[in-house]
Amino acid sequence: MWASIHLVFRNPYIYCGKYAHSGITVVSVAVSEVEIDASNLSLREVNAKIREAVGRGLRVHLKNASHIYGLAAGLKSGDIVIDGDAGDYLAMLNGGAKITVNGNAGDYVADGAWSGEVIVKGCVGYGASMYAYGGVLVVYGDAGDAVGQILKGATVIVNGCAGDSIGLYMVGGDIIIVGDAGKLVGDWMIRGCIYVGGKYESLGNNAKEAELTDDDIKKLSNLFNKYNVKADPSKFKKIVPLSLRPFYG
C-alpha cells in the first residue's frame, strides 16, 4: 500500500509521483512566493534578489526596505509586495511589474515608468510619476508637490490631497486627485487631463476648466471601480490646456 504525504503551502504548484524503491508517494512542491528581508542589504543586492525571484516566476514579499532608494527599478514583470515604507525612486522605469507598498513611499515614485502598476497604500512624497510614459500609479493617501510633472501618458490617481504644480508641462495621460490640490494646477500643460474632486488653490499658465463629458465620467467610474476609490465622478473638475501651442503664439 502506498503512503501519502500531504503538504499545504500558499498557492503551491504541486507535482506528485511515486518513489519506486520505498513505496512512498513523493510530493514535490515549488513555492510560489519568496520573502526578502532587506535590513542589511544594499540596493544592488536587493534588486538582484528581486530579479532572480521574478525570473523564477515567484511572487516577492519584501520587508525592512525603507532605506533602499531605487527599489524594484526597471522591472519588466513580476508581483512585488513591500511591507512597511519604501524609499525614494521606488519602481522607477517600471516596465510591467505590479508593485504594492503597504505603507508610505518617498519621492519620485514610478519615475519614468513605461507600464505596469504601482499601488501605495499610504502617502508619497515629491514628484510622483514624473516623466511617466505609461502604466498606473495609485496612491491611497496624500501626495506632495509636482505630481505628474512632464507626464507622457500614464494614469495617476491620488485618493487624498496633493500639493502644488501638479501636471507641470504634462503632454499626455490623466492625473486624478480625489481630494484638494494646491497652487498652479496644470501649469504650462500641453495635453492630457487633470481631474480634481475637491478644491484647488489656483490654476497654472495655459490651464482652464472644461466641462466633464460622458466619456470622462465613464473613464473615472471604471478606474474608481477597479481601484476601490469611493468618489462621485460627476463631481470632479476637469482641467485641460488652454492652447496646444502655448509657446508659439
Structure description:
An eleven-stranded mixed beta sheet has the order 3-4-5-6-7-8-9-10-11-13-12, covered by helices on one side. A two-stranded antiparallel ribbon has the order 1-2. Helix 1 links the parallel strand 3 and strand 4 (59-63). The protein folds into two domains: 1-31, no CATH class; 33-241, Pectate Lyase C-like. It is mainly beta. 10% of the residues lie in helices and 29% in strands. The longest helix has 13 residues, at 43-55. Mean pLDDT is 89; it is low at 1-29. It has helices spanning 43-55, 214-226; strands at 13-19, 24-30, 33-37, 59-63, 79-83, 95-102, 115-120, 136-139, 155-158, 171-177, 191-196, 207-210, 237-241.
Summarize the structure.
The chain contains two helices and 13 strands.
What is the radius of gyration?
A: 22 Å
In CATH terms, what is the fold-level topology of the largest domain? Answer: Pectate Lyase C-like
Which spans of ≥5 residues are poorly predicted at pLDDT below 50?
1-29
Whole-number total of structural domains? 2
